[in-house]
## 1
Amino acid sequence: MPQTSKTTVAEMNALTGALSPIFGSVASDVELPVDHMNDQPVAPQVAAELIREYLSTEGNAHQNLATFVQTYMEPEATQLMADTLEKNAIDKDEYPMTADIENRCVAILENLWHADPDEQPMGTSTVGSSEACMLGGLGMLFRWKALAKAAGIDVYSETRPNLVVTSGYQICWEKFCRYWDIEMRLVPMDENHLSMDPELAMKYVDDHTIGVVCIIGITYTGRYDDVKGMDKLLAEYNKTAKVPVRIHVDGASGAMIAPFIEPDLEWDFRLPNVWSISTSGHKYGLVYPGIGWVIWRSKEALPEDMIFWVSYLGGQEATMAINFSRSAAQIVGQYYVFLRNGFEGYKEIHTRTMDVAHHLVDEISKMGIFEMVYSAEECPILCWKLVADKDWTLYDLQDRLRMHGWQIPAYPLPANMQETVVQRIVCRADLSMTLVDKFLRDMKAEIANLDKSHIITGKTDREYTTSFDHSGR
């Protein structure tokens, strides 16, 4: 019988460690690195499982009804994106087919938003809608500077350029104004105007206004600003203005909903003063984060100063994005979803999502203790305030629902309405009627629990604990 060599034994001993069950391995008994790298390598299966176990303590993404961000894609899309993670989106010379796919996505959005090909619209992908908004804002700023100088306005005076936007803005606009030293002029919301009031907004416009931002899908409520009304008033203003004021539509959510749900709604390039539009591909564009898009209606709308020609890896490429090297996976994912769903597929998905939102509106309204602030009229988003006289608040309800895994935020409305606290649900494509009915059962159970927990009954602690339904069932 042949003798086993010492080398073979050593190799077998090494294999023994590699073949150990994951949670029987030495590595599984070591704390995950916090601020220093571990000294020795860890087997890939062990490393993956330890991180997976750590992440498992987070919430379930499908129960996160606070986020607008997409939480489901088909396995085929996920695999396709994984297959293209190594492609650098900026390297158009090395990956010309990937660059062509990005250009096709831009052209699809131009068509969806009624851009006129004769005006030579232009656009680009971005990491998300925040970068897209930054680029839209820079386009407004650069245009204003050029036109203001030509009109004899001192662009270097103590009077800063300003941007007009509703007080229900998303934080990216505050970042833009702070980064580029722009005065942020907030049009206040009130109970009668839970979106921008165009008449009031015009009072904030002057010769130093770089543009007006209209939001379709305000973060706080989901409402759409009246883009058409704003366009009409600016058309009159621009007849005598030293510097014409244009609109950037922040369509982070609504720009990928309105074309399918309300095709006759005029908010896009059909309106002459809408000069740029941004959106999140990773919201109702149905792609995993992060991907955004920004389109300018014409070459005139995109200042030449924003286009950079770079010599990179053997070619000359135009770039107008703030970010440079990044994976093309999300761009490929966006093209997959456009191809996979087509117009009718998007319409079906968003229509069903709206049905789910309206079901929630109906059922929550029937509870008799809430008043709907926004009832998913345009976006599949709903928010409500507590109107019944209760000893608990929406913050309490938020905490109780979190015990079931549901993330339903409670928060005050923006300045001028901060006394009003609302709770909001964002319905996404992966929120089924089955999940919604489970949520509604949990919500009703926790309302009953809150009603009981805030009543002083004179019972002993033991009697009270017994009557409290901790399970929520």
Note: Residues 9-13, 459-473 have pLDDT under 50 and may be disordered.
## 2
Amino acid sequence: MLTGKHVVLGVTGGIAAYKACEVVSRLRKLHAGVDVIMTENATKLVAPLTFETLSCRPVCIDTFSRTESWDVKHISLAQKADVMVVAPATANLMAKLAHGIADDMLSTTLLATKAPILLAPAMNTGMWTAEVTQANLQTLLARGVKTVGPASGLLACGDNGAGRMSEPAEIVEAIVSILCPSKDMEGMNVLVTAGPTVERIDPVRYLTNDSSGKMGYALAQAAQQRGANVTLVTGPVHIPVPAGVHVINITSTMSLYETMMEQCGKQDIIVQAAAPADYRVEKTADQKIKKQAGEPLVLKLVENPDIAKAVGQCKKEGQILVGFAAETQNVLVNAQKKLTSKNLDLIVANDVTAEGAGFGVDTNIVTLITKEGADALPKLSKSEVAERIWDKALSLKK
């Protein structure tokens, strides 16, 4: 299953280090290449020879150790990895990674890699629930670092609670899901809207909003990677288009409306993450409007069509409609109203005034609301939020 894939496994000085031996064994049985990096403390719990025998590779411990090859090990391993895994991941390792501290072979390699990072936390319950550890966890999740566990149970110290490292089988399953992502949207036609709209006042001025398009683009990319045929309807943004996605560029809310009316009947799932304007200028000036000797400029605005509502009225059997509710007050109440009034199956609600949420940032804090209930998510990267949204949409389709 993992032929041609390379895993770099970091082992830290937690008592669960012995379980990492089984992780290596299972990965090798799946034909993955494995390199192991151990911290000095880890070597006091498990002999490096054990990992060398299981991986058929030398274990890396010292950043400055001399070898026969002339490559810079922490860089070569960082580049070689298809995924970097740390099991167990101690509170100390998580703190260093959250704050960019690189003072040994493992932390230096983690900082240098561009590969996905998976942590299997393992520590005493008090350390896991400590405010600083949870803050570090949120920082790492917001950057796209993935975690598996910890589980709850009897710990080596005698406590019973959260902090127990996930079992090797679960860790390997998480690694496989990263290296061989699910194609659970194979053959589906999905449409995602993204970005702002532009409502012209005159040839040089316009009304718009702060939407960056990042959430919509993350949704489009995630769906494409999961096998869907993706149409991305986007307003003007400054981010690259995901590979393999069909793009329709729009400018105004009316052009978005016309595109949606043309495209909506062809889709299995529609996610409307764009931020269309509620109003447009009744009459756009042909020429630049000049100052009027101190007189105020009065613009008459007319209401734009409610696109989400119009799409909901055209909803076909089996189609899943997802909307967004970017609110500044009464977030959940307003989102619930939109869920019903626009005939949606799922609405993603967020308070755009909250730190780490809303426009222009790489993270989001959302609540996924359906007719059955609400699921509040912690602060996550927009890529991870996108995955959670597709997971929920697919569960509704089933």
Note: The first helix runs from residue 19 to 29.
